[in-house]
TrEMBL record:
Binding annotation for substrate: 21-23, 37, 60-63, 119, 152
UniProt xrefs under InterPro entries: Phosphoglycerate_kinase (IPR001576), Phosphoglycerate_kinase_CS (IPR015911), Phosphoglycerate_kinase_N (IPR015824), Phosphoglycerate_kinase_sf (IPR036043)
Subunit structure: Monomer.
Keyword Kinase: yes
EC number: 2.7.2.3
EC class (word): transferase
GO molecular function: ADP binding; ATP binding; phosphoglycerate kinase activity
Biological processes, Gene Ontology terms: gluconeogenesis; glycolytic process
Chain's gene name: pgk
Species in which this protein is naturally found: Ruminiclostridium herbifermentans
Positions bound to ATP: 202, 293, 324, 350-353
Protein name, as recorded: Phosphoglycerate kinase
């Protein structure tokens, strides 16, 4: 890991602006329904408090248009953070206004200030340099700990680094240490499991991983574009016609590199796209007309579980079927279970696969569940994330 972390800089008595990801879900009454993201930022915040820094937190929440909107206020997150820390968190009335600046200037060592929603300013997502400079003027050090927005070059995720020494917090440190090692120097066999609806969303990931993995497992809706490329009838399964050729090329590339590319050998198929549809299990080379693939079948589950069992590193992104429908969630559940039971270094990308692992209670058996869906996908594509790129090198 060649980027400086919060442990590589002296924060005592310094004003430290920390980009956190407090984009938490709220119910209709503005109550937080899941505080996981706030809990995730605690190690960095506690470290700063313990070291006597003056901590200024900045985050976005939801998608406000432009200007203050009460329903997107950071207030509930400041209250929850205060409860978790066991100390008062000061709430600013604005982001770079008089109130925020006065409260930042008055901060004492060990105190924590939460700024208002940074996206109340449209300059944030435009990475406007004047806005970044105003934000930076309140602090002496920039800590980025919001992996979920690290793939965005916004003022608070990247722009701040033009004006302040920039390091990462513990959350980003963990993300890049674990995923970085898996990509650069994985314990082998290295298996990647990719699922989800579309091939087009995962092309760049497949292309990057095909050079690195020993086995590439394909499931979910995207598998049917591959099965079509093999010349199979896929009934009414989801398929991207314009990606069939690409799927063929990817299979050839995998074969040429000696990468074992696994596709479903059987499937749970349905007549209609709903949970209560008539259902049957069919082999991939015997898919009947008028039926669609909704989940991987039992033979495939066994095949995939066995590859996972033998692996030393596994990366998983995307469900194996339409897991939102209980009758078609078996493949996704069984893959999650196999991953939890394997002794491998296991990494789950954000989004649906992370939710599946958490709902099933396997989260504590997974080495790392990424805190960013889009960001972790871009990381797996081999892209340089702007919010990490701007950090100081060691
Ligand atoms: P993604 O966001 O690309 O990871 O895709 C997740 C979505 O893919 C989920 O909403 C799943 O319901 C959907 N999906 C998975 N398998 C299938 C399938 N066989 N047919 C249609 N949609 C699927």
């Amino acid at each position: 890991m060649n980027k400086k972390t919060i442990e590589d800089i002296d924060v005592a008595g310094k004003k430290v602006i920390v980009r956190v990801d407090f984009n938490v879900p709220l119910d209709a009454n503005g109550k937080i329904t899941d505080d996981k993201r706030i809990v995730g930022a605690l190690p960095t915040i506690k470290y700063l408090v313990d070291k006597g820094a003056k901590t200024i937190l900045v985050s976005h929440l939801g998608r406000p248009k432009d200007g203050f909107e009460d329903k997107f206020s950071m207030k509930p997150t400041a209250v929850r953070l205060g409860e978790l820390l066991g100390k008062n968190v000061i709430m600013a009335k604005d982001v770079i206004g008089e109130d925020a600046k006065a409260k930042a200037a008055a901060l004492q060592s060990g105190e924590v200030l939460m700024l208002e929603n940074v996206r109340f300013h449209k300059e944030e997502t435009k990475n406007n340099p004047d806005f970044a400079k105003e934000l930076a003027s309140m602090a002496e050090i920039f800590v980025n700990d919001a992996f979920g927005t690290a793939h965005r070059a916004h003022a608070s995720t990247a722009g701040l680094a033009d004006y302040l020494p920039a390091v990462c917090g513990f959350l980003i440190k963990k993300e890049i240490e674990i995923m970085g090692k898996a990509l650069a120097n994985p314990a082998r066999p290295f298996v990647a499991i990719l699922g989800g609806a579309k091939v087009s969303d995962k092309i760049a990931v497949i292309e990057n991983l095909i050079d690195k993995v020993d086995t590439l497992i394909i499931g979910g809706g995207m598998a049917y574009t591959f099965l079509k490329a093999k010349g199979y009838n896929i009934g009414t399964s989801i398929c991207e016609e314009d990606k069939v050729e690409l799927a063929k090329n990817l299979m050839e590339k995998a074969a040429a590199k000696g990468v074992s590319l696994l596709l479903p050998s059987d499937n749970a198929v349905a007549k209609e796209f709903n949970n209560d549809s008539e259902k049957q299990i069919v082999a991939s080379n015997a898919m009947p007309d008028g039926w669609m693939g909704m989940d991987i079948g039992p033979v495939t589950i066994e095949k995939y579980a066995s590859a996972i069992k033998d692996a030393k590193t596994v990366i998983w992104n995307g469900p194996m079927g339409v897991f939102e429908f209980a009758n078609f969630a078996t493949g996704t559940k069984e893959v999650a279970k196999a991953l939890a039971e394997s002794g491998a270094i296991s990494i789950v990308g954000g989004g649906d696969s992370a939710a599946a692992v958490e709902q099933l209670g396997f989260a504590d058996k997974i080495t790392h569940i990424s805190t960013g869906g889009g960001a972790s996908l871009e990381y797996l594509e081999g892209k340089i994330l702007p919010g990490i790129d701007v950090l100081m090198n060691k």
